[in-house]
Amino acid sequence: DIAAAWTDYLHHCKQQGLHFIQPGRFVLPGDMAGAPALQFFPWPDVDTWGESKLAQADKHTNAGMLRERFNYYCEKVVKGFYKNHFLRFDRQIVLVDCLQPLNSGPQAFNDMRLALTQLMQSFHYGQRTLFRRLFSPVIDKLLFAATKADHVTIDQHANMVSLLQQLIQDAWQNAAFEGISMDCLGLASVQATTSGIIDVNGEKIPALRGNRLSDGAPLTVYPGEVPARLPGQAFWDKQGFQFEAFRPQVMDVDKPLPHIRLDAALEFLIGDKLR
Fold it and tell me: What pTM does this model have?
C-alpha cells in the first residue's frame, strides 16, 4: 500500500528530527486514523500533467482519486482545523524547540527554519480595530518562546533567545510591519533541573542537575554553548552541544510546579485582559 509506505516515511522523517512534515495529520491522525482522507501520496511527475489535465482526470482513476482526497484534506481537514481552533484567537504563543535540531544536525535545523516560515504564513496579524474584530479576526499580540530553557545553563539563556530571534526574523519583520505587540523569551513551563556550579580541574563552570528522562538516573551536566546566531558550517564541524532530556522533579502536592518565565509569558499575553 503506497499510502501506508508514505505515512511510514513521514514517521521516519519525524524520528530523524525533521519538522516540516506534510501532510501533518499523517503523523498525528487522532480520530482520523485509517480514514480515506489520510490515504494519498505524491504522484511522480504530476507537474508535467498541467492543472487542467489533472482537474479533468476521472475520479475513478488513480490520479483522480488522489486529487479528490488531497482536495478534501485541504478543504475539510486543514481549513476546518484553522476555522474551529484559530479563527477567533487574538493572542498567540509560538513554542520553538531550538535544542533538538542542534542535536540532530544542520538538515534538521534548516528544516525547522522552513517549518517556522511556512507556519507563520498561516495566520493573520494586525491591530484589532472594531471593524476587524467583528469581521476579520486577527492576532494582535504574538509571543515567541524558546522552550526547554531548563535544559541549558542560565548563562546560555540569552544565546537561546538570540538564536530564536534569528530563526524567526522574517516572520518578526512581517508582523512588526502590521504594528502588533511582540516579544521573545526563553521558557520552561515545568522546570525539570536545578542550576549550580561545579568544579572541574579547579575551574568553576555552570551545570545542571536533574534526572534523565529515559531511566531516572541522576545527572550533573554542562550541555554546552548555544549559538547566539544561526550556526554556520564551522559550528556543525566542531559541534559540542548535547542536551539530555530530563524528567520533572518530584514535587510536594501542596507546592506549585517550578517554572522559568511562565509568569512573564502569561503577563504579556493576557495581563491586560485581567486588569
Answer: 0.82
